[in-house]
Design brief:
The complex is a heterodimer of chains A (about 475) and B (about 475).
Chain A (H helix, E strand, L loop, with lengths): L4 H9 L5 H14 L5 E4 L2 H16 L10 E5 L26 H8 L3 E6 L39 H9 L4 E6 L5 H7 L2 E4 L19 E6 L2 H11 L29 E6 L8 H15 L3 E6 L4 H19 L17 H12 L2 H14 L5 H22 L4 E5 L14 H5 L6 H6 L3 E8 L5 E7 L5 H15 L5
Parallel strand pairs in A: 2-3, 2-4, 7-8, 7-9
Antiparallel strand pairs in A: 1-3, 4-6, 5-6, 5-10, 9-11, 10-11
Helix pairs in contact in A: 2-3, 5-6, 7-15, 8-15, 9-11, 9-12
Chain B lengths: L1 E9 L38 H13 L3 E2 L2 E2 L1 E5 L9 E5 L5 E10 L2 E14 L3 E3 L8 E3 L6 E7 L6 H17 L12 E8 L11 E6 L2 H20 L7 E6 L4 E7 L9 E2 L6 E2 L2 H8 L6 H10 L5 H9 L1 H13 L4 H18 L11 H12 L5 H12 L5 H8 L7 H12 L3 H8 L4 H13 L6 H13 L1
Parallel strand pairs in B: 12-13
Antiparallel strand pairs in B: 1-10, 1-11, 2-6, 3-16, 4-5, 4-15, 6-7, 7-10, 8-9, 11-12, 13-14
Helix pairs in contact in B: 1-4, 2-3, 5-6, 6-7, 6-8, 7-9, 9-10, 12-14, 12-15, 14-15
Chain lengths: ~475, ~475
Amino acid sequence: MKSSISHIKDSLRDKKISVEELYDEFLIKAKSSKTNSFNLLLDKENNILSIKESQKRYENGNPLPLDGIPLGIKDLFCTKGIRTTASSKILSNFTPNYESFVTQKLLDDGSIFIGKNNCDEFAMGSSNETSFFGPVKNPWKNKNVPTDDLVPGGSSGGSAAAVAEGTCVASMGTDTGGSIRQPASLCGIVGLKPTFGSCSRWGIVAFASSLDQAGPLTNSVEDAALILNSINKHDFNDTTSSNHVREDYSNGINDKLDQKIKIGIPSDYLKDVSGDILSQIENAKKALIKHNVEFEDVEFKTTEYALSTYYILAPAEASSNLARYDGIRFGVREDGKSLDDIYLNSRTKGFGNEVTRRILIGAYVLSAGYYDAYYRKAQKVRRLIKDDFQRIFNDVDFILTPTTPNEAFKIGNKLDPISMYKNDIYTVPTSLAGLPGISIPSGLSTNGLPLGIQFIGNYFEEKKLLQIAALAEKELNFNEQ
Amino acid sequence: MVIGLEVHAQLNTSSKLFSSSPNQFGSEPNENVNFIDSGMPGMLPVMNFACIEMAIKTGFALNFNINKYSVFERKNYFYPDLPQGYQISQFEFPILTEGFINIDNEGNQKKIRIERAHLEQDAGKSIHDIDPKFSFIDLNRVGTPLLEIVSYPDLSSAEEVVSYMSSLRQVLMYIDVCDGNMQEGSLRADVNLSVRKKGGELGTRCEIKNLNSFKFIRQAIEYEYKRQIDVIENGGKIEQNTMLFDTSTGETRAMRSKEFSHDYRYFPDPDLLPVNLTQDQIDKVKTSVGELPQAKLDKFIKDYNVDKDIAKIITVEKQNAILFEKMISETDVKPKFIAAWLVGDIFAFIKENNLEVSSLNEKTKEITDLLKLVSDDVISNKAGKEILPKVLNGQGKPSDIVKELGLEQVSDSGELEKIIDEALIGEDENISKFQGGSDRVLGYFVGKCLKATKGKGNPKLINKILLERLKN
């Protein structure tokens, strides 16, 4: 079993290992990895000051909550003085002079960044195949076809693969329509998308502003809670940052449930799914039912509209958010005879196919004459989806779903964008509603590949959500399988 | 001629609409630019509430409906001086709707309706004339808060447009939301103009962009009006174009036609929440609106008895009115008397010395002391005019200067009687002339007496005593 954050902290406190040795260990492993899960690794020299300060805090007996923990950071977070590319050619030479709010909080709590994780270009993708730096390989293999390289999921595919193979203790990802939960599921790890508004978006390269949310990819639910403690803070510089009262999410996470919990399972999610997927839900049910948990079938009325709503709203916002990448002030510029040519050439050569596709879709749905039919209508449907969730939460405490409709697939296998988009069918509705969701590994498929289940909670109920996820994690005992 | 105006007023807040960078003119290029202004990845706008308050204030001053709910949207287009690739503006739900202002039109009042006013960011500046090969970008202006005030097509001549624009400018300056400096671009206008036969259907309009002086507005309208009539009279059709006004030739020319017009793909900015104002927030601003120019004008005329033309000159700019009212509050000299001096010698002094009117706010005590001496006949009007520059230059208290220069009038009637009696000796012939009906002789006697007092005799008193003497 891979080490948890608290276990590593114990070792550091007990001087079984030094912060420097820990960093070396992870860095060497990351450097020799063949998964391509990092766009950039930071040599020890880059972090030597932080390493020494961290070590000193351990020696003084006052370590910070994440002191010395080597983290991976999705290459979508702006990191001061460290190249930040969003896995795009157009930003391949960009080094920000500022630190994102979330990564600053992680630094403030003593963690050390080992590198920037590969991801889909501008976080647009579900397989990490759209990255300018090439696809990421899932550390897991199909036991029936072990020669195939499999996708790790996306867009936080590099983060998921790195955590799964142990080249960082945890990684910061972002989730717009499933970009944390889906790769976590395909790589057999934990992925948490907090409530929209929990963690500041300041300094994260924007994909779809009304959906983007930072969250951790970790080996355990407890690790996710520890990281959430650091990053879940109100930020005045993000207008959409919520100022609700934050809790200590790790404290009492393994406590016994003191009251009856009711979990809804959406029957409409389970139509036409494979036996492998169905058995994940069944196993979870069996594991939890003895713990004062009651299950109930629920049914959404809006599920079939969620994907199309998402693929109107997210590209619309993206088409505008990505307008600043014009080759004029930063990023890669291609020459041209006129200003329009410079724009055209820089953006044509700077963006990959998937990003270009989404910009075009976005521009189309916002254009005069189509706005009402697409964008405005999609906003209305989004409202209905939110209401649909609230209707169900009137009845139940959590919703349990599969995280993905399938296991990890072969790199290059899904060429058709629509079938790729369908990968996010269970994660997208939660994102549209802005609700928190966590994916935990629940078992293996018949091909020996990890599958995950998703718990969805109501707004800002991460504390309870993590508790139920921790209980399920313990009962399912995935890491011992 | 049918004209509607879109006026862009830069709000004089200390920082920008969505970033904490300073909002000021005249800095070094790209000095007032932070990561938000330059559109760096991951940067987010945060609304500056002072801009909302200024919009509310304008709402009260221009009789608008102040909307509790308004939405910032993105207006998407590419240009190098627009770093985000979109301008944050209000579109479907502006903060102000349906206002009006009364303008003076050849002595009559005309009500000009205003369709809406909304908040938006300004763009930066592209500079094309420094280098033959390269263009330069100055992002200082990026994110500067603008209030765009869109009138209905209620204007029908260049004079009306200028009158509307100057009334608007006056109000915005009175309520202290815009410095009104047109040269620096703090206030600029887009003119939408079409022509039609009397009572006929509205013609196709052309929009002349970015006019930043009354002179250019007048020239552009006159040129464009003639151009459109020429086109129509020659059997042509007006195309809906966006025009530029060439300040060197005084001509308008097409910048882009409607076929190439942008589709701005407006949509609500997901980085910002809709603005939801409470009645409390709106009411709080109301108290800061202060007295508007029209109210001041009425007050000066009715309560202070100031002549209309003089009152108008004083109320043109808020600082004039402030200076005037300060002086009134500090003395018992009649406002009408002060007003005459203010627009006369005092303004002349300000103009001559290139001063700000407000710079005299600290000298009002000295000025009113001086005016008191004049109105009490302690010194003559002429002596007052002579001393004024010295007082304004801070060369001493008026009473001291008067003493120093010996300018005090002789107002002692006993002394004057003596002088007058002496002056009348040997003037029997002239006295008979006066008594025979020749008024001219009176002037001669007054002059003679003044001369005898070396100019210090109070002319009014001399006049009075002389008349008494001569009539007997």
